[in-house]
Structure formats: C-alpha cells, structure tokens
Task: structure prediction
Amino acid sequence: LRQFISFYLGDGHYAIDILLSKEIGRLHEVSPVPEAQEHLLGIMNLRGQILTVVDPQFFLGQRSAHTARDRILIILKTKAELNRLNKFSHTAFETDVSLKDPLAILVDRMGETLHVEEKNILPPLPNMADEKREFISGLIQQNSQFIIILDLGQLIRRL
Amino acid sequence: VQDGDELIHAFVEEAREHLPLIEANLLKLEHQPEDQALLNGVFRSVHTIKGGAGFFGLKNVGDLTHCMESLLSLARNHRIVLGRPHIDTLLACQDRLAQMIDDPHNSDGVDVSAECRELNNFLSGPGARIPAIRSAAVPKAQSAAAPATEPLIRFFEEAHECAPLIEACLLALKANPGNVPQLDALLRNVRALRESAAPLGLNKLVSLVEHVEEVLSLAKSAQLTLDDQGLEVLFEAYDRLSRLLDRHESADGIDTDGVCRKLSALGQADGGRDGMEDLPVFEDAGTGGVEAVETKAAASGAGSGHGPNLETEESIRVHVKRLNKLIDLAGELVLVRNQLFRLCEPLTAQLPGLKAALHNFNRITTEMQEEIMSTRMQPISVIFNKSPRLVRQLEKDLGKRLELVTEGAEVELDKTIIESLSDPVTHIVRNMADHGIETPGERLAKGKPPVGTLVQKAFHESGHVVIQFSDDGAGIDPDFIAAKALQKGFVGQDALEKMSARDKLNLIFTPGFSTAATVSSVSGRGIGMDVVKTNIEQIGGAIDVHSEPGKWTSITMTLPLTMAIISALIVRVQNCRFAFPQGHLEEMVLLQPENYAARVGQAHGHRVLSLRGDFLPLISLAESLGMGGPAEDAGVAAVDKPVHIIIIKAEENRAAVIVDQILGSEEIVVKPMPEYFRQIKNFSGTSILGDGAIAMIIDVQGYIQRSRLAYGELRKTAQNRPEIKVDQEPQSLLIFDNNTEEHFALALSWIQRIDALDLRSIQNSAGSEYIEYRGEQMRLLRLEQCLPVQKPDGYRDIAHIIIPKHTKVPVALLINRVIDSKNAVIKLENTGATIPGILGSIILDGKITLMLDLYSILKANLPESVEKLDIDPERANSKRILLVEDTPFFMRVIKEFIAASGYQVTSACNGREALEILGEGHFDLVLSDIEMPVMDGREMIKIIRANPRWQHLPVIALTTLSDAQTVLDGKKAGFNEWLVKLDKEMVLKTLAHYL
Result:
C-alpha cells in the first residue's frame, strides 16, 4: 500500500508519493531571481536554508487562478533527506527524484491523502496529449475521476 | 576492510605531512650539511613513513625508505657529509615516495630499484665503510659526559663501527628472514656491544641491547620466527640504539621504553613456553631501569635534549566536512543573533540586564565565529615551501643562479584558497626563473650580481591577503609583448594603440600567449599565465603584473581571506536585495538631480558618468538584470530624485551602477546559488541577511563582462582629455565611533589633541556641558547634538574627547573611542551635501564612515569658537582666485569656505591646467597644492615666475607638509606664503592680507 498526497493546480488534480514531501508551507517573502526562467518563482529563507520555489503550472499546462500568496508550498525532500529516510526504514523507497538543493512546488490547494495499492495504479492513458504525458507517471482512479501521479523526477530534470 | 582503509588513509595523510618536511629539510641540508637537527628531522620523517609502510605491508615504500634511512644514518653518524649528489638522489626518492603514497595500493607496482641502487652505491662508496669518527664528535662526548674517560671514547669508536654492521645484518635478514649466518653475525655484534657497554654504566643502552639480544636468541633457537613485524621492531630498536650512540650525553631524552616493551612483547607472543621463564627477568631489568631514567628526566626538567616524540604538537584530525558544517552553523548563529537583537531592542529598557546579556551574547558569537573560521585557515607556507625545491631544479635545468627569498610564510588563508594556489604559484615561479632572470653571464654584463633573486611574499592589506612574486631579472617590455600579441592575432593594431603600457603587460594573461623564443621544458608552452589568472579569479582574487624593463618584474595576487564569509554592500532594487562584495567596491555616489545633467552623458550609445575626469559606463542594475520595473529612461534626461550610484571595479574596469537604495554593509555568509539557477551567471551565490531577507551576491567580474561595456571606447574618450589625474594624495584621518554602529572620520590636521575623559567630570551649566581641562573651562559638544546621527546609550566608564586646533574658546567633541588613524585617499562624493557638518561618506576597511567637517560643526554649534574674519563680501566678490588642487576632497572643502567668504573661485586639477586657465583670464591670486599629477606646484611656480605677466601675482602654497626646510624652499621657489591646507582661518586671513 502506497500513500500519496494529492493537490489541486488549475483544473488538475495531482498526487505525489507522500515520502517525497517534507512539509507543507506557505509562500512568504520570496525573492525573485533576475533572469531566471518563469517557472522558477524565486528563492526564500526556510529557517536559514535557501529554498527554491518552482511553479509547476507551466509544465502541466495549467493556469492557477490564485495569487501566489494564497497558494500552498509542498516542500520536497532533498537527496540527503531521502537517504536518511531509507537508512531508518525497513523497506527501501526507490525514486528517481534526486535534489541537491531544497526545492518546493507551488500548488493551489491540498487534497486528501490517498492509500493506494500498487496494482491499482494505472499507466497513463494512450489518448492523453504527449506534452502532458511527459510528467505523468501513473493514474489513480477515484470514483469517476482520475488523479494524475506527477512524475516529479521528470519535472525536476526539466528545471 | 573498512577499518584497514581508514587506517591506511590516516597513514597516507600523515605521510603527506612528512613528505614536504623531508623536502624542506633536505634543501636546507644542502647548505648546512652538518646540521644535526635537520638530519634528524629528515631521518624522523623517513622513519615514520617506513614504520607505516611496514605495518601496511607496502613493500616498496618500506624498501625505499629503508635505503634512504641507511644513507641518512651514515650522515648522522658523521660517516659521510651529504653533498649535492646525495641530496639529488634523496630528493628523487622523495618524489618517488610521494608518487607511491598517492596510491598506496598500487605502490608495489612502482619501480624503486633505480633509487635503491643509487642509495646503495652511496652506502658502499668511500667513506661509508671506513669508520671515521669526526674529531668534533669526540670532545663533544667528553664535555657532556663528565667522567668521560678513555674507555668510554674507545667504546663509542667501536660502537660506531659496530652499528652499521648490525644494520647491514638486519637489512640482509629483511631480504631473507631465514638467513641463519646473518642472524648469527647479528647476535655476535649485539652481544659484543652489550659486553663492552656493561662495564661503562651505560644502563639505558645495555638494557636496550639486552632486549634485542633476547629476541635474537629466541629467533636463533627457532622459538621465534622473525617476520616483517618483528624485523620492524628490531629496526626500531636499532634506530634508538644508533641515537643513543650518537647522543649518549643526552640519552635521558631518548625514549627506549616503548621499543623495549615491543621487544618483550615479541618474545612473549612468539617465544613459546620455553622462553617464558627467562622473560620476567628481562622485563624487570628493562622497565625498572627505564622508569628510573624517566623520572630522572622528568625531574631534571626540559633542559636536556628532548626525545623526538615530545616535539609533536597537540592536535587531532578533524574531517573538513565537519568543519564546514560548523562554519555553516556559526553562520546561522550569526543570523539568529542579528534577528534576536532586532527583536530585543525595544525590550532593553524594560528588562534590566537584557542589554548586558545581549552584549555578551554578541561578543561570544563573534568570537566563536572567528575561531571556527580560523580552523579552516592554513599558512601560506604550505604553498611557499614548494618553491625552494622548484627553484633548485630550475637552477639546474636552466643553468642560472637563483636565490629564493620568502617573506610572510605565516600569513593564513582559507584552505580552499590555499589549495587552488598551488598550480598558479608553480607557474609563476617557473616563468620568473625562465623568462625573468637572466643567465649569470648576462647579469654580470648588465652590472647585476650573478645570482638572480626571486622573492615570494605574503602580507595583509585592507582585509585581503596579497601574495607577491618578484624577480630582479630582465623585466617585461610592454612593446615586445604587444608585438607578440599582434603577431599572434590576439589584438588588432588599432586596439594596441589605445593600450597603456600596463594593458600591454597584462596581455601575458591572454590564453595561448607564449613569449619564450624557444619552447623549453620549463615554461613557454603557451599555457600558464592564462590558467593562473583563471584560477585566481575563480577564488575571488585578482592578479596584476608590473615590470620595469631591464630591472624587475612583479606579479601581485590579491586574495580574499576566506570565501565563506565576506563583507558586502547590500543594495535594494525594487523588492530584491543584492550584495556587492566589498573587494569590488570603490565608492558610492549620490547624484543630486541638479548635478545629473552635468555628470551624465551619452557616449557610444551608452550612458556614462563623469567622475573626477574619468568616464564610467553608467548602468542601471534593474535594467541590466532584466528586472524591467518602472520604465527606466536610458537617456540623459533630468531626474527628479537623487540617484544612488555605486562604483564597482573588476581588474581595471570600473562601472557606475544605479541602484534604488543602499542599505549598508554587512558581513554575509555566502551560500552557493541553488543548482536550479546554474544557467544564470550574474550571481556568485546567495546569502540570508540579518533580517532574514535573501540577497543575491553579484559576481562583479562576470557582471561587468556581461554588461558588454565598451571599455576600449570609453578609455579612448577618456584619453582624449589631456592627462586625467592619476594619484591622489592620501589624507591622514582619525577614525572613531560614538558607541553606536556609525563610524566617523576627521582629518587629523584639524585635531589638536585627543584625550581620555572621565564622564563623571562633566558639569552642566546653563544647559551646556563643560569639563575642566588643563585649568580651563572647556565646552563639550556631543556628536548627536550637532549632527543627525545615532544617539549612544551612554558610554563605558572612559570616553574620549577630540580637541580641535585653532579655536577661539576651548571646546571639545565627545566621542567613545578612537578606532584607528590611517592614511587614506579620500574618494568622497557630495553624498550628504544637505547635512551641514558632514562632508560625505567614504568606505574605510569595508565600513561606511562619515567624514565630518569640524569647522562647520563648530560654526553651527559654538559660533564664538570660530574666528569671524572681517571680509567685505563686496570687495571679495570682485576678486578672482584660482584654486589648484588634485584631491577632490580638499578641492571641495577649500573651495567651499573660500566661496563662502565671497571670493570668485575657479578650480584647476593640476599645474598644467592652472597655467592654461591663467593664460585665458585675469586672476588676483593663486592658491595651489604642491603634490599633484601631471605638473606639480613647484614646476608650476617656476613657469609662473618666469612669465613677466605673473611676476607679482600672489601665489600661495597649500600643503600638508609644513616643516621649516620645505617652507623655506617653497618661499625661495617663489611662493608668497606656505599654508597648511585645512587651517581655514589662516587661509582666509592670508587671502584678506593679499587681496
């Protein structure tokens, strides 16, 4: 059984493995970095660490209806934090997400936490547009809706 | 396996520390071959490596070090004197060792036979076999050991013959542990030694030899197998033995206890049952004897010779990672402290004791941070120590004679910086020896000493470390460099014409530049100087070359002390903060709207700022970083608000950068830019400021380059103007504070005296404060009452007063303490022109410092202290004065007070300009500085007095020099008066007299 946290961004409902997330926070005093690409919102001071904030809407073809201040940050675990996690848990958590520096993604609002069995995770549908498929690692069906499991590894490689 | 790896790692680390020592000592030995301390040093280092090698079974390392040790033993025993060939070979061995130590696991694949053979040749050569106790050694033994009688001397003679035999046997046994005849011979020699030593009362020696004898007997009776480890212990015993023989007079300091115990252990471990009965006897004898000796040594104190083990300093090894973590934490702590201070500030009044606690906290934090930072510091000697060897090799390869002078080897730099200096230094030393220093023949022909001198030196300068290399060689001819560069197509003819000699010299840093007529093995491969430059710039440093053709060359590197914490100026643009490292900062300029049109112009499609005759490209930080924002008028149209400008520089290029606000300077902890921004080149890192905000650190070098500023064009523009000022006179300043964060500076020439003041002696009278000073009632002025500056929360017990010169009534300015006094070139802008009493701000040692105008302060706050001169403004208004002054600071101050008296003032920057202006119109008087670029005051007065038109024109010298001889010479040269610059009163009086 895997656990996912889900969130909303624009019209989309997405999920990521709960183990990848470190904490949920709010955006405050983000410093834009001049000349950075638009999906890199800036950097902020997270308890003395420099946290880079990414807005994934540009990758996912979504459009957030909220102002940045009202949006939610999902702060991801860095590689070192994931390693520490694996050191103390019995089952190794494998992921291709590998962050050297702290990173957070900006979403509209949080959804519920999902418990899903591996076998219930569906592959991306063949009729999904290519550019969207790039960031989908799987689907979770909930009632009549599909929640997209975000391929964070791919997203980070594109940064 | 893990443990083994870690251990071998420790061995490698230790060996790496010894290798440079070996090298350094060998090089010194070449000049002082008889120096026992040096010999012992090398021996000890080699021996330590040998020991480790034995432990880890590094056969080749062991063999090589052993052979080295043998040769060194001979030298130590005065059997040979180490000459150049010996040193050559030993150095070659040291190289080979270094190679093996770098990769210990594969060291056995390295061929050491050549080195060993060479060493062995020395061992079997003349001198080695013939025991020759130097006559010098005998009296030494005699004088030290009081009852030294003939038997004792004879014993030592014998022993010195015996010792090499013992060693030879041990060596043979090492090669073939089962060699019974060798074992027999060894036992025989050892026994002989014991027998001769026993009656002489050499207890320590006897005890040691007995232990050895025991082990050997066990080996002989096959109760013990002499493996490598066993042999190692025997070698160690031999080492101690030869040391005892060498220095029997200081035998107390030689520790034999350890090795005796090891020998006993050897016997016990492998000795089998039969040996057991015998052992206790020896052990008693051994330890008992040694203990006695040791207590004696302890009692006699540190006076006698120290054993080598005592010399090691107390230290532990800590992984750099851990230190880095500590540095990070210290940085965080500083941030938290700053935040805490801000939060607690309002509470200090309500909470007694809080302020003191915060102060303590502040002090401890600062101290701790400094300490932690210093753990990463290493002395530059780590790098400098490599040069002697290099120079020696170069002498040989190039057939030149070189002498290396090292200064400031103790100057410390961050480990990272030290590490990246190694290659650049090698390159520079090579280049200087190869290209710089001439052959002895050439030098003699030029009248120079045949031996060329290379100097490497390090010193601190305004928060940086400067490393300088210089030679007294042929120098570099800028035109030769230019011709080469042209020939290679690095620069065009037109570009060359615009270049100064210095620019041309700096062409040697162009990639691919090589000037050696022939490409030698030493240098001249066209790589090097450009790599040097890149390396130095990567660590935030700068490099510069100066030379006088035919005489000397010097290469100067300016490096930051550390890279983790830097002092920076924080500025704001829109809602972003940026940090400019202090090292790249020249000054700050506040441009008032009314001056904008006069100062900002357009050249070659760029905005330029004219700054004291120089043209600097003027860029808006917001614009250049693509931040858009309020539509920036890139033209030269007038502005309605003051413009904040900072002048930055990287190498020779300067630029004026417009920012929205200057927030102040701060020590910041540099954090790397997150990897996600790697394609952005403008920033060298980020930092979290004291208030928690983030600042991006501007990579000034890259920023200036990327702004594609047409420096060539600008320079051309600047050069079209005849001679711009080059140097400015430094002014002596007193820097002080008022127990607030602000720093102040006053020109020393304004100050009569500085004194301590007991605050309790201040009296209050009619709303003014007075002190009794030298029998006078002296009015006391407080800075915060006179100027819009921070108010101190009081002073410590002792405050200080500054007593100005030439006041009509006694007056003093209360300050907290004097921080420093220094000579600085004041680059001041009309920053605070609106505040009377403040001339403006300057950056001194990374601190913004307010320059005070003492006379304005006095005039505004105690008018009666300043003499009022009766100058009729109308009369004054009809007089034209030409003021000649190159220093903008003085120009401004003097011009201001003369103009305030009503005179018409025209200014000129130097003598030549003054003559031009004099030629164009009528002037009633000339006030002139003496030391000026282009044409100084002395030359100017000659020309003025030579012209009949100006023969009676009053010309008054204004200087900072006023000794009698100078004044006399000045008056002789034709100056009417010779005045001290800032003595406003005197200047005005004199003016009134002449006009």
The mean pLDDT of chain B is 76. The two ends of chain B are 95 Å apart (CA to CA).
